[in-house]
Each structure stands twice: as C-alpha cells, then as structure tokens.
Write a structure and sequence with these properties.
The protein has helices at about 1-15, 15-35, 40-50, 55-80, 90-100, 105-140, 145-160, 165-180, 205-225, 245-265, 275-290, 300-325, 330-340, 350-355, 355-385, 390-410, 415-430, 440-460, 470-500, and strands at about 185, 190. The chain is globular and about 65 Å long. It has one domain. It is mainly α. Helix 1 packs across helix 15, helix 2 (about 15-35) packs across helix 15 (about 355-385) and helix 9 runs antiparallel to helix 16 (about 390-410). It holds the Pfam family TctA.
Amino acid sequence: MDALVNLGEGFAVVLTPINMLWVLIGAVLGTAVGVLPGLGSAMAVALLLPVTFSLDPIGAFIMFAGVLFGGLFGDSIAGILMNTPGNSTAIAGSIEGHRMAKDGRAAQALATSAIGAFIGGIIASILVVFFAPRLAELATLFGPAEYLALAVFAFVAISAVVTDSVLRGLAALAIGLAISVVGIDGASGASRFTFGLPELFDGIDIVVITVGLLALGEVFSVAGRRGTPDDTKLLASSGRLWLSFRELRQALPAWLRGTAIGVPFGIIPVGGSEVPTFLSYGTERKLDGRRKRPMFGRGAIQGVAGPEAAGNATAGTAMGALLALGLPTSATAAILLAAFRQYGLQPGPLLFDRAPDLVWALLASFFVGMVVLLILNLPFAPLWAKLLKVPKHYLYAGITVFAMLGVYATSGKILDLVLVLAVGLLGFLMRRYGLPVAPMLIAIILGPLAETEYRRAMAVSEGDAGILVSSPISITLYAVLAVAVVGVVFTRVRAARKQKVAA
C-alpha cells in the first residue's frame, strides 16, 4: 500500500506540463538516436548527459527514462526495415521482423514490436515499484565485503561470461580499471597517473569517457568503413498498423513468455538485453517447431513479440537493480549511475530515504513514458525510418559537433576536448579489434567503488583477507560466479571440440 501511495505522489510530479514535456522530448530523442545503426539507447543517454545539467534532477531523470525506452524501440525499427539493428539488443527480434517486412508485413512487425515493448516494460515497471523497496531493504545487509563481491561479480560476469572472447573481455575490463584510478588517491592523497596536470586530479570526467567511447568511437568506426559496399536496403513500411485477432492470439503468449524471461536478467549483470532476447527467440523457435506448419524462417510474429518484450522487461528491472542496489547491470545503466553521481546522488538502499521524490517520480515516469512511446511509435514508426536516409557524412558530422559542444559546455576545459578525442580513438580501436565496450564502462563506474570497499574491509579486519568471504551473501555471490564461469568454459570447450571434429 505504501508503494501505491508513493507512486501516486510520483505521478503527481510527472503529470505536470514541464515534466510531461521532458518525457516527450526524451522519448522522441531516444527513438531518433536508437533508429541509427550502431548507436542505441546507451549512446542517446551519453549524448544527453551534458545537456541535462541545466535541468533539476527530477526533470533530467524523467527525460532519461524516455530516452532509455525510446532508444530500445528505435533499435528495432532499423532492424525490421533495414536488417541493420540499431543496437545488439535488437538483433534477435530483427531476424523474423525483417522477414515479415520483406513479406509485405512491415507495419505489423513494427506494431508487434511496439506493443511487446509496452507490455514488457509495463510489467517490469510494476514489479520494480513493489519489489525495489524490498530489495533496498535487503541491500542494507551489505557491508564492505558484500559490495566488493557484488562489484567483482559484475566485473567477471560482464567481461568473461557474456562476451564472446574471455581474453578480450578481460582486456577491456583492465583498460577501464586503469582509467578509473586516474586522479588523487582518497586514502593517501597521492596523485596517480595525472602526469602533473592539475586538471586530472579529480580523474577523467565520466561525461568525457561515455561521450568519447560511445559517440566519437562510433563516428570514427563509421568513417573507417567509408568506401565499403553497403548492400542494406530500406523497405517500405507497408501493411496495416494494427494486428488481427489471429495475430494477437499468436503474439500474446510470446509477449508474456518474453517478459518472464527478461525480468530476472535485469538484476543479473549480463551486460544488457542480448542474452534474454536470444533466449526468448530460441524458446519461441522451439515451440514453433512443434507446430504442423512452422512459421520461423518465413516471418513468424512470435519471433518479434518474444524478444521485444524480453528486451524491455530487462531494461525495466535493470533500473530497479540500479535504484535499489546501486548495481549497473548494463552499459546504459552504468551511464545512468554516472548521471546520478553528477547530481551528487548515490543509487542504493539509502536513495529511497534521501531522495524519495526523485525515486518515485522516476518510477512513475516509466509508466508515462511507455504510454507516450506507444502513442508515438504505433502510427509514426515509418517516419522514424526516414532518418536512415540521411547521408551518413552529414549525420555523423552533426553527432561529432553536438558531442564536442556538450563536453565543453559541461566543464569549459580545453583538456576535456583533447581527452574526448583520445577516448574516441580508443573506442574506435576497441571496435576494430573486437574489444567489447560494456566491460570497460562497468569497470570505470564500479572500479572506485570496488577499491573503496576493499580498503574499508581490510581496515575493519585489520588486514585479515578472510573477511572477504566471511558472510553468506559474499560466499553465495562468489559461488554463483564460479559456477557460471565453469559452465561457460565447459560449453565453449565442447563447442570447440565439435567444430574441430566437423572440420
């Protein structure tokens, strides 16, 4: 009951003209950026991070909520109409979605995607409203050793378990940890890796890192591919904008199954929605194989419905994990954690007590944002696709200018412009050589937390390392992580043996 009362107060804050405007702006910008291949919701949040510092925290995070879910749907538009998903989270839904588009059912595929995103997001948001406060109460049991175990769990899960190459994932993690220690050491007061520059005493601004890594890194990557043949073709969004009763009957179970698969993955640090969306796709394909006339491979509506619901359900519960535990379970959540810190806020169990107005307004904005996105995207999805026709050299030049202006407006330092270019080149090299970006972002965000909690644990125990594995929570986290790593190693070794035998 308390949750409903608090949520009602949150709606009272959101449903004001100015905050509704921020929701609308966030939804529009998120969808527009998400449509563009290679960008997505994380990129949209990174680009808007410098711009929102002129807003009050509630207005800024309400806008971010619209950006987050708008970016997820925008990712799917490009995948369905062009077979080039805006982000990796939309790949699974684009497989059958693009086949539906080639079969003249593009509008039905887009409608399935929009409704699936709405259902998955709404159900996840309801669960977050009722269970995030309970999760925050559970988090009060966490001490230094438990928070360190949580950080290590996130590091290893995202860099070693989820990525295709363990070595590349760990290399990206190491780069992020190296960047995270730049600045003044809080315990000793000594400067670390600052090269004598006073501007680096506070470390490298997270805005510089996110904008450089995501925005400029992608710009340089696109420029590096210039001149290569591009055989992608934008299909017209033909067909009706609504679903028939037969299509709804096929899609509804897939929407619910996808939501059920996606909800728990928002709390587990797996790097984003890639794993649950492909799990949902695989589940729907297996179920379809039992039918007399399987539809997969010919444009199965279930292949769009399940993954889309799973992706948005994961994003919704990821916000719950961020608010209640302070744990970013994806690259987008890591950037939002950085946004909280820019406003002097630390997500976690104390946030519900220290900033209840912000928390409940943000949760209410999830529901409002979903409705706004459904209204925007059902009839206007074909218009968003027109952005794909903008020449890339104009589009990415504009992104570069916007990114550089945003970074300079935030700090007013010339050094930050140099650093953002350097980080952008690093992002380009990481993309060129297949190093994942998510482990690096997670390491930069959680690295200082892990170091601080480790030092606190050692100080409390007077140097006894046994404190790190002395509680049931930390032992459980390390045990689950060990089982996951062993399982991944076993699976990959078996796959390599099968490939060797087949060759």
